[in-house]
Amino acid sequence: MKTVIQIVLTVAIIALGYLCVESIQKPIRFQEAHEMRKDANVEKLMLTRDAQVAYKSVYNKYTGSFDTLISFIKNDSLPLIRKEGSLTDSMLEAGMTEVKALALGIIKRDTIRVSVKDSLFPEGYSVDSLPFIPFVEGEKFEMGAGVVETGSGVKVQVFEAKVHNNVYLDGLEAQEIINLNDKTQKLERYPGLKVGSLEEANNNAGNWE
């Protein structure tokens, strides 16, 4: 009987020890996985922002469609000024301007067209993957575009791309995700990752910045 009690106590102690260690390790594992997924999603949102800014520079508006944005990235181009020569300090002190230097042929400025994809994306990057959320099968970022009016009455083109914590952290510890959502909602912030805004002109800022 004594041996049985000792075995039961040993098992209980081991189980208790495991639960204590697990209670410490579980939040650590979640934080590590959270940071890894966050970094991957932020990278895509930043690329989306770069593409949207380029799109607006050509069409004077943003797009709420990833299909349109991807087609633009693949098929369109951007103007790039190629510079040859520059004004020296002595030229500037003598009153030489770039316009004069161009007229005299001292410097050259040519505008060329470069591929949007080559300009904005790393070599070999799969542009078709841009809408898809890393680590989550088949889920896409939400994206929209529109116009907002500032307090001074100026109408400003805006866009927004975002992903909720529940989506990009799917498969991780559920209670930790709930805690993260509660924390951000108490701060009256979006419970996820977001760049730009459809409600205000925020200079396309990301909420992680």
TrEMBL record:
Domain of life: Bacteria
Name used for this protein in its record: Uncharacterized protein
Protein species of origin: Carboxylicivirga linearis
Lineage, uppermost ranks: Bacteria, Pseudomonadati, Bacteroidota, Bacteroidia, Marinilabiliales
